[in-house]
């Protein structure tokens, strides 16, 4: 039997399979589970367990950013327009959100 703590987590946790690798994306703010207003600007942490990741990545998610103000003339295939797979996975829950890696080089 599954314990109630596993059925109803106290903190938001997502198990991910990105580019064929398993990882975990989690938050430390329990309001993300019950209060949609907490989804304005919030922090998530990402850990893949891979050798190339030496510490947990701290991400800041902004769901009300003005992504449409980006340069319209830029080629969508240019390297500046490409986003890491992790950011695309986050946008499956929060469409249009911007992701700040807070000084960490984006990976995945």
The value of Rg in angstroms is: 15 Å
Helix content, binned percent: under 10%
Percentage of residues in DSSP E strands = 25-35%
Count of the separate structural domains:
1
Structural description of this entry:
The structure is a single chain. The protein has 108 residues and is mainly beta. It has one domain (4-100). 9% of the residues lie in helices and 26% in strands. The protein contains two helices and five strands; from the N terminus they run H-E-E-E-E-H-E. It has helices at residues 4-7, 85-90; strands spanning 13-18, 21-26, 41-47, 57-62, 98-100. The protein has a five-stranded antiparallel β-sheet. The radius of gyration is 15 Å and the shape is globular. The mean pLDDT is 83.
Short note summarizing the structure:
With 108 residues, the protein is mainly beta.
Please describe the structure with a list of short key phrases separated by commas or semicolons.
2 helices; five-stranded antiparallel β-sheet; 26% strand; 5 strands; mainly beta; 108 residues; 9% helix
Give the topology, please.
Elements: H1 4-7, E1 13-18, E2 21-26, E3 41-47, E4 57-62, H2 85-90, E5 98-100
Antiparallel strand pairs: 1-2, 2-3, 3-4, 4-5
